[in-house]
Amino acid sequence: MQRREDALALLAYAAEVHLPNAQVAARARSLNTLGYGEFDALHLALAEESKVGLLLTTDDRFLRKAERGLGNPSIRVANPLDYAKEAKP
Predict the structure, then answer these.
(1) 58 Cβ partners below 8 Å, 6+ apart?
(2) Domain coordinates of the chain in residue numbers?
(3) What pTM was estimated for this model as a whole?
(4) What is the pLDDT of residues 4-62, one digit of tens each?
(5) What pairs with residue 54 in β-bridges?
(6) Which residues pair with 89 in a beta bridge?
């Protein structure tokens, strides 16, 4: 319950909220058939549709699949700690 409350509290920092549409659902199904988990596929498809510059994840399996180019992701997927080290001057 605490994790859910913490996750919902992060929404206060969201500048935009993007909801899935038919295109996102189709892309997510395609990514899922390629080996991404259902939620990973949905997150990646929605991030692509929203044209974000970066999707951060701590899920190593998800990250490896995206780094290998499985499904030709159109956005970068990175681990938050690695990205923070890279972005730090």
Answers:
(1) 79, 80
(2) 2-87
(3) 0.83
(4) 888 888 888 888 888 999 999 999 999 999 999 999 999 999 999 999 999 999 999 99
(5) 76
(6) none
